[in-house]
Amino acid sequence: MKLPETQLALLEAASATEQRTVAQFAGELGEDTAAVTRAAFELEEAGLLAVDEHVAEDVALTEEGERYREAGLPELRLRAAAVEAGADAEPAEMGRLIGASGLEGPEVDIALSNLARKGYGSIEGGAVQLGADPKYDPDEDPEAEALDDIADGNAGYLDSGILDRLESRGLIERTETTVRSVTLTDDGVTALMEGVEATETVSAVTPELLTSGEWREVEFTEYNVEADAETVHSGKEHILRQTANRVKNVLVGMGFQEMEGPHADADFWINDCLFMPQDHPARTHWDRFALDVPLMDDLPEDLMERVEDAHRNGVGTEGDGYHSPWSEDFARAVALRGHTTSLSMRYLSGHAVGELEPPQRYFSVEKVYRNDTLDPTHLLEFFQIEGWVMAEELSVRDLMGTFTEFYEQFGITDLEFKPHYNPYTEPSFELFGKHPETGELIEIGNSGIFREEVLSPLGVDCDVMAWGLALERLLMLMYGFEDIRDVHGTLCDLDLLRNVEVVY
Ligand SMILES: N[C@@H](Cc1ccccc1)C(=O)O
């Protein structure tokens, strides 16, 4: 009989009476586990080996668990400091104990809650009183001992209650692995007695094999497509980036051109051009990220004058200004843009790519920054899908039709529109879509038709409809997750990102 080298080595190393694991053979034979596993399955298929599988749990300390094993559990360190301070008689002041125990940051809360849970002590009025009747002997704290056992490789002796507790404290990590053990079958023993030789097998066709014609003679390794393989998380494009690119493709397909421009921009482009009064609440430091950099000096003077005039006096014979303060320095101050409508202003003004004649369609899919409170639907930065259409005559039907056409390409067909107010558009509409999991209506964008007060200073004398849509909200509707922080930031759900199906 002839067998490929690894199979032959495994067959010869295996015993009919003693079970040994694939990992042990891999060590002995100096081969990698995957190759030995593959060989074991092939020999099992040929009836020469028996492969036995069972699931084993592996327990390891996390980085935090390792730290506590060395320095002591926070509750034990706090208790030790309290004993030192005589807190078994008189309550000892917390601040002092924290200093003495060397606990830092989140360790303090961890120490306090576990101190109470284990009955080592209680906290009242900012002082620690040691408990008369603790649940455990602090010198034999079961969690501290379990950490040592785990570090010494003796996790097998621990009961699952303590492991659950340590796991919920984030001090250990449990993983399940399939352990495969191998023994020779009778047929295997017979084969070995009759003699087995190595066939050299080739796992890949090389240019040399092809040119020499040797490929005709060699034996190729068989692939076992059913064998377990290690899960490989290869790098891939983040779904947010994937969707941003898809949005760009869709908009280009609808005849739009892409805008570019600075993330940090003058308030002039971000707000003043949009007929946002300088005392508007959104322009205070509570909402925006101001930057401590010099004022922007290359702003078009004539446009600045016309914008100031619109703010002060309004536009047209019926127009009235804001009667609110106007300062040039305020307009020149630089901040992170809170929307990409700053880009629309740069383009519409002729400042970015020269004067534009209708019809025109422009878009961007870019980051914006807002000083919002983080919650499931708000981040401090997000991607906005900005866009506008310039034409002689536009109506709300054009706006709605554009959104219907755009969102349809992402499978979203139940848009709802709500009248809204923006200082720069009239009429204005907020857009809503239904969350596929919760059925809740979520806001996905804001839109409208630019007012005369915006267009006239820019020198545009036809209609312009415009919008800002949230890319992350579009993603929520497409993929059904409920918390925006699942897809980016430090709390992101890696499993979701790795396994989410790409929707086309
Ligand atoms: N700038 C608006 C979106 C918008 C753009 C253009 C016109 C109308 C609305 C926002 O960020 O919400």
From TrEMBL:
Binds 2 magnesium ions per tetramer. This is Phenylalanine--tRNA ligase alpha subunit. SUPFAM superfamilies: Class II aaRS and biotin synthetases, Winged helix' DNA-binding domain. Mg(2+) binds at residue 426. Keywords: Aminoacyl-tRNA synthetase, ATP-binding, Cytoplasm, Ligase, Magnesium, Metal-binding, Nucleotide-binding, Protein biosynthesis. Residues 247-486 form the Aminoacyl-transfer RNA synthetases class-II family profile domain. Tetramer of two alpha and two beta subunits. NCBIfam families: pheS, PRK04172.1. It catalyses: tRNA(Phe) + L-phenylalanine + ATP = L-phenylalanyl-tRNA(Phe) + AMP + diphosphate + H(+). L-phenylalanine binds at residues 341, 384-386, 424, 450. GO terms for biological process: phenylalanyl-tRNA aminoacylation. The keyword Phosphoprotein does not apply. It comes from Natronomonas salsuginis. One of its GO terms (molecular function) is ATP binding. The keyword Ribonucleoprotein does not apply. Its cofactor is Mg(2+). Belongs to the class-II aminoacyl-tRNA synthetase family. Phe-tRNA synthetase alpha subunit type 2 subfamily. Pfam families: tRNA-synt_2d (PF01409). GO terms for cellular component: cytoplasm. The gene is pheS. It comes from the Archaea. It is found in: Cytoplasm. The lineage of its organism: Archaea, Methanobacteriati, Methanobacteriota, Stenosarchaea group, Halobacteria.
